[in-house]
Amino acid sequence: MKLIIIAILACTSMSVSAECWVVSNLKGQSQFSPEYKIQKDEAVGIYHVTINGETASLSSVGDVYKTGLSYFPVSSNSMVGVSHGDARSLIETWAIMTDGKVIYTKTRSNPSHLNQLSSFIGDVIGKC
Length: 128
Description:
By secondary structure, the chain is mainly beta. It has one helix and nine strands; from the N terminus they run H-E-E-E-E-E-E-E-E-E.
């Protein structure tokens, strides 16, 4: 009996700490160098935002968006993705809100390419 209770508690604690959200409808704005004029933008596709204890990941349905970033959880419902080197960086933030919305930001800095600042708000359309 004790073994059954321990197994149930172990499964419950694992499911509480691991979350995967299906995200879509990301709409917002971006600014690109050299003018940095605000323009309407959207992140097309369906994404899976996964936070599991000390790990986090992002994938897109059909592998449409491959970032090459390393993702790290900030909380049970938010994560940061980073990539850097040779005076360039790419930083993303993903936050799942309690009202069923998701906030996604992206900052790219690269002396030889287009610099970018983007912010989007989308919908959590389900669980993975």
